[in-house]
Amino acid sequence: MKILINPSQEQLKETPEMLLKTVREPLMIYVDGLRQDITRGLVTLLHGNEPSGFRALHRWLKLGQKPLCNLVCFIPSIPAALIEPLFKYRVYPDQRDMNRCFLPPYYDEPGQLAEEILTQFQTYKPECILDIHNTSGHSPDFGVVTFENPSHEALVSLFCDRLIVTDLRLGALMETSTRRCPVVTIECGGAQDDGSDEIAWNGLQKYLFQEDVMSLEAGHRMDLYRHPVRLELIENTKIAYSDSYVLGTDLTVPSALDRYNFDTVEAGVLIAWLRGSDVEQSLRVNDAQGRNVFDDFFTIKGNQLLTAQRLKLFMITTRPDIALGDCLLYAAQEREHAILDT
Ligand SMILES: [Zn+2]
Fold first, then answer.
1. pLDDT of res. 217
2. Which distant-in-sequence residues (6+ apart) come within 8 Å of 26 by Cβ?
């Protein structure tokens, strides 16, 4: 891992892309704050195709300002991001997803990098950590946390008013969150969406300069969803995106399914056309306890996969590689919806 301490304008290069092309490996950046007794943590570009947080960080670093508190940043997936076309690859080919590696054993290259990041965080002892992502499909912005806690909600509220509380455990960085050092995931919206870079930029400003980032301001309202599940496809499932069933595929997903991201959809909404009803065996919907809860969320009628009840859908991807390698979408039951009003 390359380390830059209080980087000079020369070291930062002109553009975020030029910096990546110069560094070519995972990068740590440390910047002294106006007050030296507190440090804040930041991770971004954990997925190589999610650049909004990194662009915001670079834009701010180029201003040459001091943050209020010390800042320790990690930009891990530079090698994946650099594969042409730039910012296309979520993961370096044949490696594990970086955001599934923050759990021992740290046996491979991304695992060892995750361990190194956690060790550095133990040294620098940040008061909190933000992990800034984009979604791969079109989506509004939202935060994800692993348990309900006022400091989690406050950190997410620097960026947005939508919050998912997940009890799924996959090895994501946010799962290392503790009351002593809260860690939250921010999804700034789709990597291709116009507003996402600006959402990252505005939130980052608050994170860098606000005195207190861990108390929720009075009068703040957040939409909160609990107990999401993932719709996963087993290996070698054939998937396509189109506006009608594509012959030879196991499932064909409507091209614009991501328009439902963060919409509340009623029962009976089409998720995919299937080769036949036996495709159900290729689909997996497990809850946090590992129980198959497919029937609570989805139903198959003829050759159609439909929602089985009122759901909030999010992280719907329109990338077949991500649908296969990670999941097609997340869903939470509308009855798990709560409004936080302070
Ligand atoms: Zn991501």
1. 81
2. 1, 2, 74, 75, 76, 77, 78, 79, 113
- pLDDT per residue over 229-246, tens digit each? 999 999 999 999 999 999
Tell me how far the alpha carbon of residue 303 lies from the centroid of ligand 1, in angstroms. Answer: 32
What's the pTM value of the predicted model, to 2 decimals?
A: 0.96
Encode pLDDT of 10-53 as tens digits: 999 999 999 999 999 999 999 999 999 999 999 999 999 999 99
* Angstrom distance (rounded) from CA 188 to CA 51: 10
d(CA 102, CA 320): 25
pLDDT of residue 58: 98
Of 52, 264, 54, 259, nearest to 162 by C-alpha is 264
**Helices 196-209 & 52-61, crossing angle to 10 degrees?**
50
Fold assignment, 2-226: Aminopeptidase (3.40.630)
Domain boundaries, the chain: 2-226, 229-335
CA of 277 to the centre of ligand 1 (A): 32
CA of 172 to the centre of ligand 1 (A): 10
d(CA 91, CA 79): 9
Q: Please state, in angstroms and rounded to a whole number, the distance separating the CA atoms of residues 143 and 275.
A: 35
CA of 97 to the centre of ligand 1 (A): 9
